[in-house]
Amino acid sequence: MTAPADTPPVYIDYLNRFDIDQLGFADADILGAVEDALRMQGLGETVIEPRTHIRPKAGVEGHFNVLRGWIGGEVDSAGTKVVGDFVDNYRDGRPSEYGLLTLFDPRTGSPKALIDATGITEMRTGAMTALGAKYLGPDKPKVLGHIGARGTAYWNVRLLCHLFDFDEVRVHSRRKESREAFAETLRRDLGREIIVTDDWQSCLDGADVMVEASRLSEPTPLLKTPWIKPGALVIPYGTMSAVELNLTDIMDKVVMDDWGQAHGIFGALREHVDQGKLTAETLHAELGQIVAGVKPGRESAEETILFWHRGLALSDIALGHAMLARSKERGLGQRLRFY
Protein backbone atom coordinates (compact mmCIF):
# COMPACT_ATOMS: atom_id res chain seq x y z
CA MET A 1 0.00 0.00 0.00
CA THR A 2 1.42 3.38 -1.01
CA ALA A 3 0.80 6.42 1.17
CA PRO A 4 -0.73 9.49 -0.55
CA ALA A 5 1.86 11.97 -1.72
CA ASP A 6 0.57 14.69 0.61
CA THR A 7 0.69 12.52 3.78
CA PRO A 8 2.96 14.19 6.37
CA PRO A 9 6.18 12.21 6.91
CA VAL A 10 6.84 10.58 10.27
CA TYR A 11 10.32 10.23 11.73
CA ILE A 12 11.47 8.27 14.77
CA ASP A 13 14.40 9.36 16.92
CA TYR A 14 16.44 6.35 18.03
CA LEU A 15 18.74 6.38 21.06
CA ASN A 16 20.82 3.33 21.94
CA ARG A 17 22.75 2.67 25.13
CA PHE A 18 25.90 4.32 23.75
CA ASP A 19 23.99 7.53 22.96
CA ILE A 20 22.52 7.61 26.46
CA ASP A 21 25.96 7.11 28.03
CA GLN A 22 27.16 10.25 26.22
CA LEU A 23 24.33 12.46 27.46
CA GLY A 24 26.05 13.09 30.79
CA PHE A 25 22.92 13.05 32.91
CA ALA A 26 23.81 14.07 36.47
CA ASP A 27 22.13 12.67 39.55
CA ALA A 28 20.12 15.89 39.95
CA ASP A 29 18.89 15.63 36.34
CA ILE A 30 17.53 12.14 36.93
CA LEU A 31 15.88 13.04 40.22
CA GLY A 32 14.42 16.23 38.77
CA ALA A 33 12.77 14.52 35.79
CA VAL A 34 11.18 11.81 37.94
CA GLU A 35 10.11 14.26 40.66
CA ASP A 36 8.41 16.49 38.07
CA ALA A 37 6.51 13.48 36.72
CA LEU A 38 5.40 12.54 40.23
CA ARG A 39 4.16 16.07 40.84
CA MET A 40 2.13 15.99 37.63
CA GLN A 41 0.72 12.61 38.62
CA GLY A 42 -0.34 14.04 41.98
CA LEU A 43 -2.09 16.92 40.20
CA GLY A 44 -3.95 14.60 37.83
CA GLU A 45 -2.06 15.61 34.69
CA THR A 46 -1.13 12.06 33.71
CA VAL A 47 -2.71 8.75 32.75
CA ILE A 48 -1.37 5.43 34.04
CA GLU A 49 -2.50 2.01 32.94
CA PRO A 50 -1.86 -1.02 35.18
CA ARG A 51 1.19 -2.98 34.09
CA THR A 52 0.73 -6.28 32.36
CA HIS A 53 3.07 -9.24 31.93
CA ILE A 54 4.18 -11.62 29.22
CA ARG A 55 5.37 -14.96 30.57
CA PRO A 56 7.01 -16.98 27.77
CA LYS A 57 6.87 -20.75 28.04
CA ALA A 58 10.50 -21.05 27.07
CA GLY A 59 11.81 -23.09 29.99
CA VAL A 60 13.62 -20.11 31.52
CA GLU A 61 13.06 -18.10 34.67
CA GLY A 62 11.87 -14.74 33.44
CA HIS A 63 9.04 -12.58 32.18
CA PHE A 64 8.34 -9.25 30.48
CA ASN A 65 6.70 -6.23 32.14
CA VAL A 66 4.62 -3.96 29.92
CA LEU A 67 4.13 -0.43 31.28
CA ARG A 68 1.93 2.23 29.70
CA GLY A 69 1.08 5.85 30.37
CA TRP A 70 0.79 9.48 29.27
CA ILE A 71 2.21 12.73 30.65
CA GLY A 72 0.83 16.15 29.72
CA GLY A 73 2.49 19.54 30.06
CA GLU A 74 5.76 20.12 28.24
CA VAL A 75 6.39 16.38 27.99
CA ASP A 76 3.08 15.68 26.21
CA SER A 77 3.95 12.10 25.30
CA ALA A 78 2.29 8.74 25.52
CA GLY A 79 4.62 5.83 26.00
CA THR A 80 5.00 2.11 26.40
CA LYS A 81 7.96 0.34 27.92
CA VAL A 82 8.59 -3.38 27.60
CA VAL A 83 11.27 -4.58 29.98
CA GLY A 84 12.41 -8.11 30.64
CA ASP A 85 13.15 -9.57 34.04
CA PHE A 86 15.40 -12.59 33.52
CA VAL A 87 17.24 -13.28 36.74
CA ASP A 88 19.76 -15.79 35.34
CA ASN A 89 21.15 -13.43 32.70
CA TYR A 90 24.15 -12.73 34.92
CA ARG A 91 25.48 -16.16 33.98
CA ASP A 92 26.12 -14.79 30.47
CA GLY A 93 27.29 -11.39 31.68
CA ARG A 94 24.01 -9.80 30.61
CA PRO A 95 21.79 -7.35 32.51
CA SER A 96 18.69 -8.88 34.02
CA GLU A 97 16.50 -6.20 32.51
CA TYR A 98 16.69 -5.30 28.83
CA GLY A 99 14.16 -2.56 28.11
CA LEU A 100 12.76 -0.63 25.16
CA LEU A 101 10.78 2.62 25.52
CA THR A 102 8.53 3.81 22.71
CA LEU A 103 7.20 7.39 22.77
CA PHE A 104 4.14 8.47 20.79
CA ASP A 105 2.53 11.76 19.83
CA PRO A 106 -0.75 11.72 21.81
CA ARG A 107 -2.43 14.03 19.28
CA THR A 108 -1.89 11.94 16.16
CA GLY A 109 -0.85 8.53 17.50
CA SER A 110 2.35 8.62 15.47
CA PRO A 111 5.54 7.18 17.01
CA LYS A 112 8.18 9.71 18.07
CA ALA A 113 11.08 7.78 19.53
CA LEU A 114 12.63 4.43 20.31
CA ILE A 115 14.94 4.60 23.32
CA ASP A 116 17.03 1.96 25.04
CA ALA A 117 15.36 1.69 28.43
CA THR A 118 17.77 -0.67 30.14
CA GLY A 119 19.62 2.19 31.79
CA ILE A 120 16.47 4.30 32.12
CA THR A 121 14.82 1.50 34.11
CA GLU A 122 17.72 1.41 36.55
CA MET A 123 17.96 5.19 36.88
CA ARG A 124 14.26 5.90 37.33
CA THR A 125 13.88 3.08 39.85
CA GLY A 126 16.75 4.47 41.88
CA ALA A 127 15.20 7.92 41.63
CA MET A 128 11.86 6.61 42.92
CA THR A 129 13.61 4.96 45.87
CA ALA A 130 15.54 8.14 46.67
CA LEU A 131 12.54 10.42 46.29
CA GLY A 132 10.53 8.13 48.52
CA ALA A 133 13.22 8.65 51.17
CA LYS A 134 13.22 12.41 50.55
CA TYR A 135 9.52 12.73 51.37
CA LEU A 136 9.02 9.80 53.76
CA GLY A 137 12.38 9.08 55.40
CA PRO A 138 13.80 10.36 58.68
CA ASP A 139 15.10 13.92 58.57
CA LYS A 140 18.77 12.95 58.82
CA PRO A 141 19.08 9.18 58.32
CA LYS A 142 22.40 7.79 59.44
CA VAL A 143 22.28 4.13 58.35
CA LEU A 144 21.24 2.75 54.97
CA GLY A 145 20.73 -1.00 54.63
CA HIS A 146 20.38 -2.27 51.06
CA ILE A 147 19.57 -5.81 49.92
CA GLY A 148 20.37 -6.63 46.30
CA ALA A 149 23.38 -5.93 44.09
CA ARG A 150 22.19 -6.13 40.48
CA GLY A 151 20.06 -4.11 38.10
CA THR A 152 18.49 -1.16 39.90
CA ALA A 153 20.57 -1.58 43.08
CA TYR A 154 23.40 0.71 41.97
CA TRP A 155 21.13 3.70 41.32
CA ASN A 156 19.24 3.14 44.57
CA VAL A 157 22.41 3.58 46.59
CA ARG A 158 23.94 6.26 44.40
CA LEU A 159 20.89 8.53 44.43
CA LEU A 160 20.18 7.97 48.11
CA CYS A 161 23.76 8.98 48.86
CA HIS A 162 23.27 12.04 46.65
CA LEU A 163 20.43 13.18 48.92
CA PHE A 164 21.69 12.05 52.33
CA ASP A 165 24.96 12.03 54.27
CA PHE A 166 24.83 8.52 55.72
CA ASP A 167 27.29 7.46 58.41
CA GLU A 168 26.95 3.83 57.27
CA VAL A 169 25.96 2.23 53.99
CA ARG A 170 25.50 -1.54 54.30
CA VAL A 171 24.89 -3.87 51.36
CA HIS A 172 24.14 -7.56 51.02
CA SER A 173 23.21 -9.97 48.25
CA ARG A 174 22.98 -13.74 47.98
CA ARG A 175 26.22 -14.30 46.07
CA LYS A 176 29.42 -13.19 47.79
CA GLU A 177 31.15 -12.25 44.54
CA SER A 178 28.17 -10.13 43.52
CA ARG A 179 28.00 -8.13 46.74
CA GLU A 180 31.76 -7.62 46.86
CA ALA A 181 31.85 -6.34 43.28
CA PHE A 182 28.84 -4.11 43.97
CA ALA A 183 30.52 -2.57 47.00
CA GLU A 184 33.74 -1.97 45.09
CA THR A 185 31.86 -0.15 42.33
CA LEU A 186 30.10 2.03 44.88
CA ARG A 187 33.36 2.82 46.68
CA ARG A 188 34.93 3.89 43.40
CA ASP A 189 32.00 6.00 42.17
CA LEU A 190 30.83 7.50 45.45
CA GLY A 191 34.21 7.89 47.15
CA ARG A 192 33.00 6.49 50.45
CA GLU A 193 33.18 3.33 52.54
CA ILE A 194 30.63 0.60 51.90
CA ILE A 195 30.06 -2.16 54.47
CA VAL A 196 29.47 -5.61 53.00
CA THR A 197 27.46 -7.93 55.25
CA ASP A 198 27.13 -11.70 55.16
CA ASP A 199 23.42 -11.89 55.94
CA TRP A 200 20.15 -9.97 55.79
CA GLN A 201 19.92 -9.18 59.49
CA SER A 202 23.34 -7.56 59.84
CA CYS A 203 22.54 -5.46 56.78
CA LEU A 204 19.08 -4.27 57.78
CA ASP A 205 18.70 -4.51 61.55
CA GLY A 206 18.24 -1.02 63.00
CA ALA A 207 18.82 0.86 59.74
CA ASP A 208 17.07 4.21 59.26
CA VAL A 209 16.36 3.47 55.59
CA MET A 210 15.89 -0.17 54.56
CA VAL A 211 15.74 -1.06 50.86
CA GLU A 212 14.86 -4.58 49.74
CA ALA A 213 15.62 -5.11 46.05
CA SER A 214 16.26 -8.84 46.12
CA ARG A 215 15.93 -11.18 43.15
CA LEU A 216 14.18 -14.19 44.67
CA SER A 217 12.81 -17.05 42.60
CA GLU A 218 9.79 -17.46 44.89
CA PRO A 219 8.29 -15.56 47.84
CA THR A 220 10.46 -16.05 50.95
CA PRO A 221 10.09 -13.91 54.13
CA LEU A 222 13.76 -13.05 54.67
CA LEU A 223 13.18 -9.49 55.92
CA LYS A 224 12.00 -9.89 59.50
CA THR A 225 9.60 -7.34 60.93
CA PRO A 226 11.33 -7.14 64.36
CA TRP A 227 14.45 -5.70 62.70
CA ILE A 228 12.56 -2.51 61.86
CA LYS A 229 13.09 0.21 64.42
CA PRO A 230 10.46 2.89 65.15
CA GLY A 231 10.83 5.86 62.81
CA ALA A 232 12.45 3.89 59.99
CA LEU A 233 11.51 3.93 56.33
CA VAL A 234 11.16 0.52 54.67
CA ILE A 235 11.21 0.25 50.87
CA PRO A 236 10.56 -3.30 49.63
CA TYR A 237 10.07 -3.71 45.90
CA GLY A 238 11.36 -7.12 44.90
CA THR A 239 9.36 -8.93 42.23
CA MET A 240 8.95 -11.84 44.63
CA SER A 241 8.00 -10.90 48.19
CA ALA A 242 10.73 -11.06 50.83
CA VAL A 243 8.68 -9.64 53.72
CA GLU A 244 6.50 -11.08 56.46
CA LEU A 245 2.73 -10.75 56.44
CA ASN A 246 2.76 -8.73 59.68
CA LEU A 247 4.96 -6.03 58.13
CA THR A 248 2.05 -3.65 57.54
CA ASP A 249 0.83 -4.10 61.13
CA ILE A 250 3.65 -1.92 62.53
CA MET A 251 3.41 0.83 59.92
CA ASP A 252 2.00 4.27 60.66
CA LYS A 253 1.72 4.94 56.94
CA VAL A 254 1.89 2.87 53.78
CA VAL A 255 2.56 4.77 50.55
CA MET A 256 2.70 3.53 46.95
CA ASP A 257 3.79 5.07 43.68
CA ASP A 258 0.39 4.14 42.18
CA TRP A 259 -2.42 2.13 43.72
CA GLY A 260 -3.42 0.88 40.29
CA GLN A 261 -0.24 -1.19 40.23
CA ALA A 262 -1.09 -2.98 43.50
CA HIS A 263 -2.90 -5.85 41.81
CA GLY A 264 -1.37 -8.55 39.65
CA ILE A 265 0.80 -11.60 40.08
CA PHE A 266 4.06 -10.09 41.37
CA GLY A 267 5.22 -7.64 44.02
CA ALA A 268 6.58 -7.31 47.54
CA LEU A 269 3.14 -6.78 49.12
CA ARG A 270 1.23 -9.11 46.83
CA GLU A 271 -0.05 -11.26 49.71
CA HIS A 272 -0.93 -8.22 51.80
CA VAL A 273 -3.22 -6.94 49.06
CA ASP A 274 -4.71 -10.37 48.37
CA GLN A 275 -5.53 -10.87 52.05
CA GLY A 276 -6.96 -7.39 52.53
CA LYS A 277 -4.19 -6.17 54.82
CA LEU A 278 -3.50 -3.35 52.36
CA THR A 279 -6.47 -1.72 50.64
CA ALA A 280 -7.27 1.55 48.92
CA GLU A 281 -8.75 2.70 52.24
CA THR A 282 -5.71 1.80 54.36
CA LEU A 283 -3.21 3.21 51.86
CA HIS A 284 -2.11 6.62 53.13
CA ALA A 285 -1.28 8.15 49.76
CA GLU A 286 0.45 7.81 46.44
CA LEU A 287 3.86 9.45 46.41
CA GLY A 288 2.81 11.86 43.65
CA GLN A 289 0.09 13.26 45.92
CA ILE A 290 2.72 13.94 48.56
CA VAL A 291 5.15 15.54 46.09
CA ALA A 292 2.31 17.75 44.81
CA GLY A 293 1.36 18.78 48.34
CA VAL A 294 -2.09 17.17 48.13
CA LYS A 295 -1.39 14.84 51.07
CA PRO A 296 1.23 14.95 53.84
CA GLY A 297 4.38 12.85 53.81
CA ARG A 298 6.31 12.18 57.02
CA GLU A 299 4.85 14.23 59.85
CA SER A 300 7.00 13.16 62.81
CA ALA A 301 10.30 11.47 63.59
CA GLU A 302 8.43 8.63 65.33
CA GLU A 303 6.44 7.51 62.27
CA THR A 304 7.40 4.15 60.81
CA ILE A 305 6.62 4.25 57.11
CA LEU A 306 6.55 1.75 54.27
CA PHE A 307 6.97 2.83 50.64
CA TRP A 308 6.13 0.20 48.02
CA HIS A 309 6.93 1.18 44.47
CA ARG A 310 6.09 -1.03 41.53
CA GLY A 311 7.61 1.15 38.80
CA LEU A 312 5.74 3.69 36.70
CA ALA A 313 5.66 4.22 32.96
CA LEU A 314 5.46 7.92 33.84
CA SER A 315 9.01 7.87 35.19
CA ASP A 316 10.25 6.13 32.04
CA ILE A 317 8.43 8.59 29.78
CA ALA A 318 9.65 11.64 31.70
CA LEU A 319 13.27 10.50 31.77
CA GLY A 320 13.13 9.35 28.15
CA HIS A 321 11.71 12.74 27.11
CA ALA A 322 14.47 14.59 28.96
CA MET A 323 17.14 12.41 27.35
CA LEU A 324 15.63 12.86 23.92
CA ALA A 325 15.68 16.65 24.32
CA ARG A 326 19.34 16.66 25.32
CA SER A 327 20.29 14.26 22.53
CA LYS A 328 18.90 16.74 20.00
CA GLU A 329 20.94 19.55 21.56
CA ARG A 330 24.10 17.45 21.25
CA GLY A 331 23.43 15.81 17.91
CA LEU A 332 23.30 12.30 19.32
CA GLY A 333 21.21 9.38 18.12
CA GLN A 334 19.76 8.52 14.75
CA ARG A 335 16.68 9.67 12.89
CA LEU A 336 14.71 7.01 11.05
CA ARG A 337 11.99 7.51 8.46
CA PHE A 338 8.90 5.63 9.62
CA TYR A 339 6.14 6.75 7.23
TrEMBL record:
InterPro entries: NAD(P)-bd_dom_sf, ODC_Mu_crystall, ODC_N
Domain of life: Bacteria
Matching Pfam families: OCD_Mu_crystall
PANTHER family xrefs: KETIMINE REDUCTASE MU-CRYSTALLIN
Protein name: Ornithine cyclodeaminase family protein
Taxonomic lineage: Bacteria, Pseudomonadati, Pseudomonadota, Alphaproteobacteria, Rhodobacterales
